[in-house]
Amino acid sequence: MLVTNDKIAFEKYHLYPTEGLLNDPNGLVYFNGQYHVFYQWNPKGCDHKYKVWGHFISKDLTTWERVETALEPSLENLDSAGIYSGAAYVHDNRLYVFYTGNVRNELGQSVKSSQMWAVSDDGIHFEKLGELFPHPKGFTKDVRDPMVWQGKNGHYFLILGAQHDNQVGDIIAYESTDFKNWTFRGSILGNQLQNVRGYMLECPGFIEVDGKQVLMFSPQGLTPDTDNHRYENIHNTGYVVGKFDESSATFNVMTDFEEVDKGFEFYAPQTMIAPDGRRIMWGWAGMMTPDREGSVPTIAANNWVHVLSLPRELHVNNQNKLLQRPISEILEVKQLTNFDHVSVGKYAIDTNTNWEIVLSDSSKLRRMDNKIIFERKQWESGQVETRQITGNVNQVILIIDNDVLELYTEDGLESMTSRWF
Ligand code: FRU
Fold first, then answer.
1. CB atoms closer than 10 angstroms to residue 106
2. How many Å apart are CA 171 and CA 82, to the nearest integer?
3. Residue 23 near ligand 1, beta carbon < 6 Å
4. DSSP state of 329
5. 188: Cβ contacts below 8 Å, ≥ 6 apart
6. Measured in angstroms, how far is the CA atom of residue 24 from the centroid of ligand 1?
């Protein structure tokens, strides 16, 4: 079993909640001999009204243990309605996590966010350390999802997704020399990337892969570009490659914004570094309109909703493109040659001819020349919609789980993650 201490396995390869709603992966880290995957979890219902940090641990990245909730709301006027997304950072052999505290009013509306931290010595039990710094001026209450790293100059940088008072998304930075006192440094984007700010920008991540610096983020409210099959989901995740200048605390963007995954649901990814140096990413397979989310078939069946993506090893090639591939630990594939009645499994498809896989009455995957198209009849509306990848589709990896599939081109350039029913 993927989650060894669960009674029922709802998925074979993907991490899921046993009840309630799961969203973003959080605090991904290797600490004291174990991999930790925390995640946004509402144990009280299949909606977003309340969030804790759920927690999985693993020694080998192939089997997982579901352990006690790591953090839950407790602080009046700081995190009483939600422990929102954030990241982990190991400092002086202690595991620090940074998160956003959410507060709601009597009507249930989110009214305040605070940037918070907590610490643990065993990776399981956390002591909250309170608020990091006051809310920045010029921004609405939508400032969240801290991520921390140490710069080459030894200083610590903390970035956040933020909404300016004029309703434009941005990424802002704070800097600290002692890991405790933080100075506001402002936007790391300045005037760059105006076309992909949206009205809010969530879950920024700054990472180094193969010596390149990558900034990933999830803008909300981009206009769909249907001609080029971009930004077709309600909210989308993408990346740029560039250079972070530590003295000005700005990220100088060198590439266009590229979507990380072309399926229906991928969102809010985070990464960790494995002890062998690999950069491993998980995302949420998850992002959908409220109507669709409210009627995901697993809710009526078993009172839970959403999964995490598979862990993917990342690279960046010489053209500054992100490459993704499921980690080797989980990648024993078998060659798929018969496309009839394909069920749950991990497959390699190596062929230059077209093919079609009918997964159900509602979901179908087909290769047409240099494209692979996933066609899905949406469960909430009956409308048929597609997502597609274009590229070297003669060699692909296809992982089909009970109700989620992931498709990768073997060259790592394209991926597509979607629920199917
Ligand atoms: C992204 C997100 C984050 C936030 C969290 C709340 O999906 O909206 O910005 O911290 O989910 O669950």
1. 6
2. 21
3. yes
4. G
5. 159, 171, 172, 173, 215, 244, 249, 250, 251
6. 7
Mean pLDDT across 376-405: 98
The confidence score (pLDDT) of residue 82 equals 98
Place of tokens 């009849």: 377
Question: So what's the pLDDT on residue 92?
Answer: 97
Q: Which of 51, 52, 84, 160 is the best mutation target for the ligand 1 pocket, counting ligand atoms within 8 Å of the beta carbon and taking the most?
A: 84
Cα–Cα distance, 359 to 311 (Å, whole number): 23
Q: Is 65 helix (H, G, I), strand (E, B) or coil?
A: strand
Q: What gap in Å lies between CA 264 and CA 233, rounded to an integer?
A: 6
Task: Specify the amino acid at residue 280.
Answer: I
CB-CB contact of 141 with 200 (8 Å): no
Distance between start and end Cα atoms, the chain = 22
Q: Give counts: helices (H), strands (E), the chain.
A: 2, 32
DSSP, collapsed to helix, strand or coil, labels residue 255 as coil
DSSP type of residue 136 = P
Cβ contacts of 330 within 8 Å, gap of 6 or more: 13, 61, 62, 310, 311, 346
Domains annotated on the chain, with CATH? 20-326 (2.115.10.20), 332-419 (no CATH)
Query: What are the tens digits of pLDDT across the range 117-150?
Result: 999 999 999 999 999 999 999 999 999 999 999 9
Q: What is the DSSP letter of 121?
A: S
**CA separation (Å) from 286 to 5, 251, 418?**
24, 28, 9
Atom of ligand 1 nearest to the CA of 161: 9
| Å from CA of 57 to ligand 1 middle | 22
pLDDT digits (tens, 9 = 90+) for 202-239: 999 999 999 999 999 999 999 999 999 999 999 999 99
CA gap 20, 139 in Å, rounded: 32
